[in-house]
Design a protein that fits this description.
With 289 residues, the protein is α/β, with parallel strands linked by helices. The protein is built from 10 helices and 6 strands, in the order H-H-H-H-E-E-E-E-H-E-H-E-H-H-H-H. Helix 2 crosses helix 3 and helix 4 packs parallel to helix 10.
């Protein structure tokens, strides 16, 4: 007699009673960090409808960000989609996800240490079928609407700055704003580190060199992949520097809600990116075990 071990996909239950979407729940360690930056909700003491379970709401938001599903498709055992969306909008307004990312950077710096010696900046474009704020015609996707994120990482690829604009915005126009955002998030003296910044050929211009070397006191390294490989062959023992930002873009795309932007509001899309940045920063810091 053959015994099936397949899960019941309609109800989302496995044979041992566990849900088939447990993999997309927020871990206990991440919830502990997020709970530290959530607003304090006080009990009014006047009765009425009880407040939703915040852990379930956080799980629902995390599930939606990882899977990219619609809010109404969130499993009800986590939270109602409308409830999760309402709390998400409220937490976006409070800056919860930005605070979580900042906390992740502080934890990483304490446990591992942020390496400011080598930094990298690169842009990545994603589809935005519904349009909305900070979208534009993607020149690499037959003019369809898209969004560009300009990402800055430190030497190990930890995201330290993020700016979002339309897909038709040139990388050079976003560079200064990306650097400024990094300095606001992590203020430091110009002479505190001997800082290098790695860029691809898309950033090559005289004004860019003046900006990053004279204004921000970086040592600029603008090379194509082929040039970088040739230089590394001449300098044995060295390793590529710029690829880490491309790897971080790939990390962020594991959040399906980030891979394709469905939010019309730019603040909601940025919040999803901030949650992804926080998650992978905590992960690289070893917080999740």
């Amino acid at each position: 007699m053959r015994v099936t071990t397949l899960s019941t996909t309609r109800r989302g239950l496995t044979m041992d009673g566990a849900t088939s979407f447990d993999h997309f729940r927020m871990s206990d360690e991440l919830w502990e960090q997020m709970n530290a930056v959530l607003p304090i909700y006080e009990d009014c003491g006047k009765g009425g409808r009880p407040r939703a379970n915040l852990r379930g709401v956080a799980d629902a938001i995390f599930y939606r960000m990882r899977t990219g599903c619609q809010w109404k498709a969130i499993p009800r055992c986590l939270a109602a989609g409308s409830t999760a969306h309402a709390y998400f909008q409220e937490w976006v307004g409070f800056g919860v996800f930005d605070d979580l990312w900042q906390l992740a950077l502080e934890v990483y710096d304490e446990l591992v240490g942020l390496d400011w010696t080598w930094q990298s900046v690169d842009g990545a474009m994603t589809k935005a079928p519904l349009g909305g704020d900070a979208t534009g015609k993607n020149p690499t996707d037959r003019g369809k609407l898209g969004t560009k994120r300009s990402l800055m990482t430190e030497a190990a690829g930890i995201p330290i700055s993020l700016i979002v604009d339309g897909a038709n915005t040139h990388d050079i126009k976003l560079l200064q704003e990306t650097i400024e955002h990094c300095l606001v998030r992590w203020p430091r003296e110009h002479n505190e580190f001997d800082e290098h910044i790695c860029l691809d050929k898309g950033y090559q211009s005289a004004s860019m060199h003046t900006l990053i070397e004279s204004v921000y006191h970086y040592t600029a390294h603008v090379r194509s992949r082929a040039e970088e490989k040739r230089e590394l062959k001449r300098q044995r023992g060295e390793r590529p520097r710029r690829w880490v930002v491309e790897r971080t873009h790939s990390w962020l795309n594991r959040f399906r809600a980030v891979l394709v932007r469905w939010e019309k509001k730019i603040d909601n899309h940025v919040a999803a990116l901030q949650l992804a940045c926080a998650y992978f920063t905590f992960s690289r810091a070893g917080v999740f075990g």
